[in-house]
Amino acid sequence: MTIEFLLTSLVVVLLPGTGVIYTLAVGLGRGFKASVAAAFGCTMGILPAAIASIVGLSALLHTSALAFQVIKYLGVVYLFYMAWNILKDGGAMDVKEEKTSKSYGKIAVTGTLINVLNPKLSLFFLAFLPQFISANSSNVTMDLVSLALVFMAMTFAVFVIYGAFAAAARDYVISRPNVMNWIKRSFAGAFGFLGLKLAFSD
After folding, report:
1. What are phi and psi for residue 175, nearest 5 degrees?
2. Does 52 reside within a domain?
3. Domain that holds residue 110
4. Rounded to whole angstroms, what are the CA distances from 158 to 41, 109, 173?
5. Each residue of 146-158: pLDDT tens digit?
6. Please, which residues have CB within 8 angstroms of residue 64's CB and are 6 or more apart in sequence?
7. Does residue 6 lie within any of the structural domains?
8. What is the distance between the alpha carbons of residues 13 and 152, in angstroms, rounded to a whole number?
């Protein structure tokens, strides 16, 4: 494992995407513990893509337009659903001072689905991980597994930090409903934009 892999992975993880947006939304709406559940779910959502790239299944998405399109549009529908869920009363970002009824398990499952239904994640791993495998490696499979696990650990750590910052701003947001409404529209718009971006991807 090289410093180049660690630095490149950190840059990729830090870039705002659906997982980051979801973790921030949950941190603002539900607090820190819920944001940790969201971060865990998003990290677990990486696992299928990592496994697919390691065993070569992601090559199917690369070569089969139909397979890619099916998963892509499932992802698009889910992102649009997330946008609607943020805006509705009692949705993912319904910030209230009392405890919410949504379990940490459901929050984690939602985070997992966000990444599972993103076919570009499999293609990313297919293109990303092999670059950091030594030509002299005696066990390529184990090297790929190690890189994927490090990437997932880094994702979880960074997302927890994002969630902590969002949760820290929670009290400020609760006391200012107009600010929360603006934030909710911004997050919903971000999910809608990411859905449209995925819909038009090849």
Report:
1. -80, 0
2. yes
3. 19-85+101-130+137-199
4. 13, 19, 22
5. 888 999 999 999 9
6. none
7. no
8. 9
Q: What CA–CA distance (Å, rounded) separates 4 from 17? A: 22
Give me the helices (H) in the chain, please: 3-14, 18-30, 32-44, 46-55, 58-63, 65-87, 104-116, 119-128, 140-168, 170-174, 177-199
Region of 90 (left: φ > 0; alpha: ψ -120 to 50; beta: rest) is: left
Domain count, the chain: 1
Query: In the structure, what pLDDT confidence band is assigned to residue 61 with cuts at 50, 70 and 90?
Result: low
With respect to residue 7, please indicate whether it lies within any of the assigned structural domains.
no
* Weakest-pLDDT range from 65-74, 85-94, 160-169, 183-192: 85-94
Please tell me the pTM assigned to this model: 0.71
31, 170 in Cβ contact below 8 A?
A: yes
Q: Tell me whether residue 92 is in a domain.
A: no
pLDDT tens digits, one per residue of 100-146 = 456 889 999 988 988 887 776 776 777 677 777 776 777 777 888 88
- Listed in sequence order, the residues at least 6 apart from 169 whose beta carbon sits closer than 8 Å to its beta carbon are 28
Supply 56's token pair. Answer: 């070569």
